[in-house]
Write a structure and sequence with these properties.
By secondary structure, the protein is mostly helical. It contains four helices and no strands. It has one domain (7-88). It is 74% helix and 0% strand. It starts with 6 loop residues before the first helix and ends with a helix.
């Protein structure tokens, strides 16, 4: 809802099919931006957590490598999906 607009006016305009833009972007573009950079930021933070876990447990090179492979495998799927969508222009 745009700032300063009463809820009833916003809801009736939304029901009428009008689209509100914020910062020159519509709702879909804002959601895509948040998903891409928000989840990307969380992935970087999770890599930091895995690195800290490896350091605190004194895992060594092989142990650190295995931690990144095992714990980072789910993040790899998210990254691969975005790369495929970008390459195939879906």
């Amino acid at each position: 809802m745009p700032p300063g607009m009463r809820t009833a006016i916003w809801w009736s305009a939304r029901q009428a099919g009008k689209r509100f833009d914020m910062f020159g972007m519509n709702e879909e573009q804002i959601a895509q931006l948040g998903l891409t950079f928000g989840v990307g930021g969380f992935i970087l933070y999770m890599f930091f957590i895995i690195l800290q876990l490896a350091r605190e447990s004194k895992a060594g090179r092989f142990g650190t490598f295995m931690l990144f492979i095992v714990l980072g495998f789910g993040m790899l799927g998210f990254i691969a999906k975005n790369v495929l969508v970008w390459l195939l222009n879906i």
